[in-house]
Each structure stands twice: as C-alpha cells, then as structure tokens.
Specification:
Strand content of chain B: 15-25%
Largest sheet of chain A: 4 strands, mixed
Distance between the termini of chain A: 56 Å
Number of strands of chain B: 25
Strand order of the largest sheet of chain A: 2-1-3-4
CATH class of the largest domain in chain B: Alpha Beta
Order of helices and strands of chain A: HHHHEHHEEEH
Helix content of chain A: 40-55%
Shape of chain B: elongated
Shape of chain A: globular
Number of helices of chain A: 7
Bound molecules: iron/sulfur cluster, FE2/S2 (inorganic) cluster
Oligomer: heterodimer
CATH architecture of the largest domain in chain B: 3-Layer(aba) Sandwich
C-alpha cells in the first residue's frame, strides 16, 4: 500500500514547520501526524515523512525508533499497555496482564486476529498511586483495574467507546 | 599571555582551544572515544573526565587565598568535566588522571560501564591491537567487572553496505560513524537506532551503506564494531608493517599508509594530511592494494612468433637497444605517462633526449563528471600535473593517433592506452611496441617487449596532484632486487625482522622480478656507452630540481618535512579536479 498524506495533513505539516526556525525539529510532531493518519509509522511511513520534510531517511528512522510511543509496525485498533512495573506488579499487574491474555486469546506483544487489540507489557507509566493500571493507545489511563473493569473496558472498546479521562484526587488524611 | 595549569604545570596559550585537544597537543594524554578533531563534539562517551577549577582570588587584595599549608585554594567545578568539549580559559586549573584519584576512579568506572555489554572478544576481533577501547581499558580500566549478569545481545555480522560489516555488540555508540556520514561525506546514510542498551548504528530500512567514503568509518570506529568486509580476518595488525605512500588511483594524491606482511600489501588506510585529505580517503583508493599484489608482471616478456615468453633482463636490454638502433629516430615515438611518477617520466625523457628521440608526449586520463569536489577527481591518474611541469607535450586522443601512425617503434611508459580506449589494436598494427609496465593488461599483452617496473609500493618516487602539490612514496614492498634489512628507508615489521627464507611465513614468490624505470634506463644507457646513471628517486629529484624550474628547491627531505610541497599556485596548470 502506498501511503500518502491528505491535503489537510499537508497543511498541518506546513503549520508545524512554521513553528521552528529549521525543519529538523518538526520531525517529532510530523511523525505524530503520520501515526494519527495511518495508525503506525512503519518504514514506508517513515520514508514518507522524510520525503515530505526533505530530511534524510536515516534521521527520521532514528527518531521513530528511539521513541516507543511511535508504532513501527501495524498495531490493533486499540493498544493496551498494561503496566507491570513495581507498584502495579505488587498490586496484581501480572494478574491483569494474564487475564487479558486469556480473554483476548493472545500473548503479550501480539495483536488479535480481528485487528482490534494489541496487548503490551509496559514499564511504569507514572500512575503508581492507582495501580494496577493500563493505558489505551498512548492516551487514556484506566486505573484501579479489576477483572470486572477489564471486561467492561473490552466490551465498550469493541463498541468503539473509548474510556473517559479519569481524575483521581490526592488521598486525604482522614482516608488513610 | 593567558595560561592554564595542568597537573601542576603552567602552560601559556593563544587563541581558543578545547581542553582535550590542548592536552594532546602537549603530548600528554587523557583517554577518550567519541571525540574526533575533524568532527563535531557530542561528548557522549564520557571517558575524557577531568577535574577543572580556578584559584580563589581575593577581589580586594587580588591575592590568592591560601590554605593552612600555604597552598593556593582551588574552587572546583561541582562535578568532573568532559575535557573534549570544554574551552580552556585563563587561570584554569586542571587535574587529569595523572594527579587525581577521583579522575582515575571516574575513568575506571566509566570503562566498567562501557564494557558491561561488550563481548570482550578481542582474540577474534580485527580491531585488536589498534583498538582504543582495548588500549584505554588496559591503561585506565578496572581489572574485572561487577556486572556478572547475562549480556545484552545485538545483531552481529550485519553487512551494512558492500564494504562495511557491523557487529553491534561491540559498538559503544560514540556516533563517530553517523557523524561522519552527516558531516564529512554528507550522505546521511547512518543513524543510531533503538535506545538504551539496545542501540546501534544502522542505515534507514531498505537502504545500504554504499557511501563512496564508507570505509573511513571503519578507521574511526574506536572499537571493532565496524570492520572492512574485504580486510576482515586477513591479518593481525601487529604482523603487518606500515609504510607511508600516496594514493595513485586518482589525481588528489591522498596520503595513505600501505600495510604489508610478507611483501603483500594487505590494506590501505588514509594518513593525515591537513592540506590534502585530512583524515580521509575514498573507498576506491583502498582497493588499489590489489594492483600491488595481483596480476603483476614479473621478469621481462618478449614476443616470439606472436607469443609472449619470459625473457631475461640481459635479453630485454639488448632488444630494447637493438630496436632503437635499427629504427630511424623520426620513426620512434616515446610516450610518457600521467600514471607514472615524476622520476620515472624524467628518466625516460632524459634517455630520450640523449638518444636524440622526441620529448615524451602524454595523454591525460580524465573521466568527466567522476569527481565530487572532495577527494574523488575527474583525473584518474596521480601525476598529470607532474608530466606538464616536466614539459611533456600533452596530446588528446586524436593527436596521439596521428603521432602513432608516423611511428614504427613505440616506447610506452606505464599507461594502458589500449585498455582505456585511447588507442586501438589497429592503430598499432605492424608497429613494434615496447612497454614499461607494472601489471598485465590488454596493452601489455599486445606489446612485443614488456619491461616489468616497480609500482608506487616498491619505489620511492613523487607525484604531483591536481592541486600542484608534489608528494612522495616510500618503498613498502621488496622486489627481487631490494632488501629490507639493508635498505634503511624500508620499515621492518616483526615478521620481517625475525623471519628467514626458510620460515613458512616468508614467501620469496611475493617479491616481484621488476626494476625501477630509472634502473632499467641506466642499464640500457650503459650498454650504449652513454653517461647516464640514475640510481634512486632521491638523487633524480635533486637533479630535476636543479634543471627544471617548477621543481626548484624540491627535495625528498623538504617533502618529508612539509608533507608535500605546493609547486604552483596558478590554477591554469592544474587539471580540472
Ligand atoms: S559503530 Fe563504532 S563508530 Fe559507530 S557508534 Fe558504534 S562505536 Fe561509534
Ligand atoms: S508501577 Fe505501574 S504506573 Fe508506576
Ligand atoms: S571524548 Fe569527551 S565525552 Fe567522549
């Protein structure tokens, strides 16, 4: 498949370029434009970005490879990053991961047949206070996970409903 | 004048200097990996740590603050500094590993970190023996490692391009190679991929590292991560000996080193010359090592009944003279060569002159559009300007053909005119062709008499590059008639020093049966009773400098001292680069 930016994308890219004195710093935001458009930045998309910006292919490749949030291959519609770092692990992060593996019938790092979900194991996402938790496609956090919560999440994602952004206050003294 | 105090000694300086370079220029040392004097300074290896500070001076009195023992008190930077990217400043106090335990410790710990995932496979690594990582670790590294866990594995034996192989596990991510493609060759072919302990240099997907200068990254890689696909596993560095030379594959005259073992040239690497090639050379020039070893003409060849057979030197000299004697002078054409050195061309011209033959002509060897404005030139020959300065008549193809038609005896110096399509077999029909040459070719195959002569690896001779700079070679490889141990100018490696003809590491066959052009010419002249004795390049150059104006003042000594001498400043004389 040949990847191409739409007219709107190109306008947006021009606008991004105008923010910087040189083209190189536009690499990161333009990779986002590409990932939002194509769902990933595989080598072909990286080349498209490089050519659109007039930068060396190797440069765009190096940048895309550096950041884990850029997907270097096609992923499911929803990417579930389950945190298994220390706090989440202690609060059952692995249980959540294994439950999801069972439920979706895939192993971590894989994508479901219908292309709906990709399941990943992630390092600390900075929400240790609400462990265990996962992140949906570089975006919303789903916190205080339980098996029931996972079931609900998967159901609603299948329907195309993304979770709400959750705001959790700091614990108050009397609650401790 | 401003001054810096390094390890308790004060040094005056002028201008701006980076501390690491300044220390090196003093002949002292601080270990480092990522710094390279010809590229930008990323300070990413962290090996060049030193302690930097300033004496505390009382503002009012202007006096140094002293401690109890009367020593000047120093205000140190809160942390150690990387010497490569810090500018020296007046009154700066520096402690290197030589005087400071903290610096020693930092350098040691940094090496321990760098080596965590390094495979430590020096015994099978090509870089061993010329590896900064190996050397610095011996000198400044820890004796062991505390990281006794499984190492991270990365891609190995990756063919990055046609000439360069990557072992990512050995890489320390200094970015010298990527900076080279960004800043020097400007092909931007390399980048660092991934991150953390998984990163390594690579090309963009679907592309290969075919940069015409790619092998320079092998030279500057401070570890064995990048190796030459061609040279890999051919020799250990300490078995070879290294002799300075000049690249003869194009007009730039890059300064090079020839690496030989048992009289075979195994590789060519660039030698620093600020005015010519900096630290670099094109990949094509490195291929030339083959010219010195392979397909060489050894012993004179003479045509008998249409077939070339090995002859003797006596026969060759006799035939050479006989042919000249039996041909009317006006039917003899002497052709010089931009591929041969100044001394060789001069010797031929002098002989020609004494015999009453024509002043040699020559045909430049240009490839329009081949040059890149950097180190690759349109000029395919190393000495076009040299021929011009000797006063040879420059001919184009048509003009040469006209001359050849008139001749019945053609004497041709080191130029494969048939192979480069200047002449055709038809042009030479019925003519006696004598060629003095180094390697077999279409042209030498056609010749009726072939005199094997020395290559730039076997004689000391000079070449004038496209910019009018005269530079000279040294003898790197023995012929049947030279001897490393007797020739004080030849370098001697371990094997040369301790080997004998009866060892299996000395191969007599690697010495070519050939003579320098001037030796052959002297033999020929001698048999004619002419007073012409040309013994070696050094003396010939002295003679040229006293007889040829453009070469005035040129001598081997001066060339050696100044890394070449610029003979002309006016660009008319130069070939198009
Ligand atoms: S391959 Fe060599 S030059 Fe390139 S980053 Fe690694 S260590 Fe440095
Ligand atoms: S450990 Fe899971 S968010 Fe920090
Ligand atoms: S040489 Fe200074 S940090 Fe690498």
């Amino acid at each position: 498949m040949a990847y191409e930016f739409t007219k709107e994308d190109l306008e947006q890219i021009e606008e991004i370029k105008s923010r910087y004195p040189e083209v190189m710093p536009a690499t990161l935001p333009v990779l986002w434009v590409a990932q939002n458009r194509f769902g990933h930045v595989n080598p072909e998309v990286q080349n498209l970005v490089a050519e659109t910006l007039g930068l060396p292919h190797s440069h765009v490749h190096g940048v895309a490879e550096f950041y884990t949030q850029y997907y270097k291959e096609e992923k499911g519609k929803y990417v579930l990053d389950v945190c298994t770092c220390l706090s989440c692990q202690l609060c059952g992060g692995y249980d959540i991961l294994h439950y999801l593996e069972e439920k979706l019938g895939i192993k971590k790092g894989e994508t479901t047949q219908d292309g709906m979900f990709t399941l990943n194991e992630a390092e600390c996402l900075g929400a240790c206070g609400y462990a265990p938790m996962l992140q949906v496609t570089n975006d919303q956090y789903v916190n205080h996970l339980t098996k029931e919560k996972i079931d609900m999440l998967v159901e609603s994602l299948k329907k195309g409903e993304k979770p709400e952004y959750e705001k959790i206050g700091m614990p108050q003294r009397e609650n401790i | 004048m401003p001054e810096v105090i390094i390890d308790g000694k004060s040094y005056k300086y002028e201008g701006q200097h980076k501390l690491l370079q300044f220390i090196q220029d003093l002949g002292k040392e601080v270990p480092f990996f990522c710094y390279h004097p010809s590229m930008s300074i990323p300070a990413n290896c962290r090996q060049c740590m030193v302690k930097v500070g300033q004496y505390i001076v009382d503002r009012e009195s202007g006096k140094h603050e002293l401690d109890d023992k009367g020593n000047k008190v120093i205000r140190w930077f809160p942390k150690l500094q990387t010497a490569c990217n810090i500018d020296i400043a007046d009154g700066m106090v520096v402690h290197t590993q030589e005087t400071d335990e903290l610096v020693r410790r930092a350098q040691k710990d940094n090496l321990e970190l760098i080596l965590i995932n390094h495979p430590l496979d020096c015994p099978i690594c090509d870089q061993a023996g010329e590896c900064p990582l190996q050397i610095q670790t011996y000198k400044y590294g820890p004796e062991g490692s505390r990281f006794e866990v499984k190492k991270v594995h990365k891609p190995k034996r990756i063919q990055l391009g046609p000439r360069v192989v990557l072992d990512a596990e050995r890489c320390i991510n200094c970015t010298r190679c990527t900076r080279f493609t960004q800043e020097i060759s400007k092909t931007h072919q390399l980048t660092i991929t991934r991150r953390g302990d998984k990163n390594y240099p690579t090309t963009a997907p679907g592309t290969e590292f075919n940069d015409p200068y790619s092998l320079n990254t092998v030279d500057i890689c401070p570890v064995g991560a990048l190796t030459s696909a061609d040279f890999r596993f051919k020799a250990r560095v300490w078995e070879m000996n290294q002799t300075p030379g000049i690249d003869i594959t194009n007009g730039k005259g890059c300064n090079i080193d020839l690496w030989t073992r048992d009289n075979i040239v195994l590789r060519i690497t660039p030698r620093f010359n600020m005015d010519v090639n900096d630290h670099w050379m094109p990949d094509a020039g490195r291929e030339a090592y083959k010219i010195f070893n392979e397909n060489r003409i050894s012993r004179p060849l003479q045509k008998l009944d249409g077939e070339q057979i090995l002859s003797s030197w006596n026969n060759a000299v006799a035939t050479f003279i006989e042919q000249i004697d039996n041909t009317e002078n006006k039917n003899i054409l002497v052709i010089g060569s931009p591929h041969a050195s100044v001394e060789e061309n001069y010797s031929l011209a002098k002989f020609s002159n004494l015999m009453g033959l024509n002043q040699p002509v020559f045909v430049p060897h240009l490839k329009e559009g081949a040059g890149d404005g950097f180190l690759i030139t349109d000029d395919q020959a190393p000495n076009t300007v040299g021929c011009r300065l000797l006063g040879f008549t420059e001919l184009d193809q048509k003009a040469l053909k006209k001359e050849v038609v008139k001749a019945s005896l053609v004497i041709l110096l080191s130029d494969h005119l048939l192979d480069r399509n200047v002449l055709t077999h038809k042009d030479l029909d019925g003519k006696f062709l004598i060629t003095l040459a180094t390697n077999h070719s279409e042209t030498t195959k056609r010749a009726d008499l072939v005199i094997p002569v020395t290559t730039a690896a076997e004689h000391a001779a000079s070449y004038v590059n496209v910019d009018g700079r005269i530079q000279r070679t040294f003898r790197a490889k023995e012929t049947k008639y030279t001897n490393r141990r007797l020739d004080m100018e030849m370098s001697e490696g371990r094997l040369d020093r301790y080997g004998t003809n009866f060892d299996n590491w000395v191969t007599e066959d690697n010495k070519i049966d050939c003579l320098p052009v001037w030796r052959f010419i002297s033999e020929a002249a001698g048999s004619k009773g002419l007073d012409l004795v040309l013994s070696d390049g050094r003396e010939i150059m002295d003679e040229i400098s006293s007889t040829h104006n453009p070469f005035k003042g040129v001598s081997y000594q001066l060339m050696d001292e100044q890394a070449g001498i610029l003979l002309i400043n006016d660009s008319k004389e130069k070939t198009n680069a």
